[in-house]
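This section describes the prediction task in plain terms. A model, or a person checking by hand, is given the sequence of a single protein chain and must write out its three-dimensional structure as a string of tokens. No templates, partner chains or ligands are provided. The sample shown here is typical of the held-out split.
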Amino acid sequence: MKIEMITLFTSIQLGPLSLPNRVVMAPMTRSRALDNVPNELMARYYSLRAEAGLLITEGTSPSPNGLGYPRIPGLYSEAQVVGWRQVTDAVHAAGGRIFAQLMHTGRIAHPANLPLGARLLGPSAIAALGEMWTDSEGMQPLPVPLEMSEQDIAAAIEEYAIACKNARSAGFDGVELHGANGYLIDQFLNTASNQRSDRWGGSLENRIRFAVEVARASAAAIGGERVGIRISPYGVFNGMAPDAEMDALYLRLIEALNNIDLAYIHIVDHSSMGAPPVSEELKAQLRAAFKGKYILSGGYDASRANADLDAGKGDLVAFGRPFIANPDLVQKLKTGAELKAPDPDTFYTPDAKGYTEF
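The expected answer:
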């Protein structure tokens, strides 16, 4: 018999971590990593939000090939490990816990944003529609990526494993694999970007293979209890497109991930921002099928979050944009205080305005 209601402020165990609350700061690209190296400004940004049960960083590339956007950080060089150590030390000093989100952008990139010698790669030689900002050339159309060879795929999987080890060296409590929103892992899952006819494309088993192998290598590197994965069924961001087998694909993926004992899955639902919704039925099926913790996301306020947690729809709730202008979001959720609105003009600019100064 349940005695008390489960809310955002009920503690929870996540792998080896004891979280004082169930508020998760969602990963959000903020483009402050000059030369792709984390810095003191970023340490301030994350430490200000350390009251969250768990912080998840912005997308951080495991490879020079995955630095598709301007000023996003990586986790493949010694300088980046040292830079991130500033961030994790500041968060831990403020009493927080922090995972690095590993995001290889794959075909969502432009050569002007990549370091010298990096290659623009994807599962198939299919460009995503649209344009991307480059600091040197302004807006540019997304180019056709090189189709990854078997050697490229093996190298990318190894890069994720090395980045996981680097994350632990940098003081992170764990990592989240970005398998959502049209980046490399999602590009393998989705037929809009994966039209391969080898063992990495075609059937459901083949399309989930890259995600599963990355998860397996990551868990082998640092332990599955320190690895989560973010997925976005029915997402259309970055040129993704649903197909008739989408529910079956994600259920098959969850089945395979259960054998790796990951800490959590994090479900993206951007319907509050106009994207197609993830059906309640599929969410319930994924929830029932997965053995680890389940992070809800998608336009939540405190009332809806508490209701869904108490109903057992998930274990934690991620908040994104509300954290941008409200570093004290946890307190405001607790007291019902009014939230400040963020300024979209400062989301991706390089300085402190709208980031640590308001």
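For orientation: The first strand starts at residue 12 and ends at 14.
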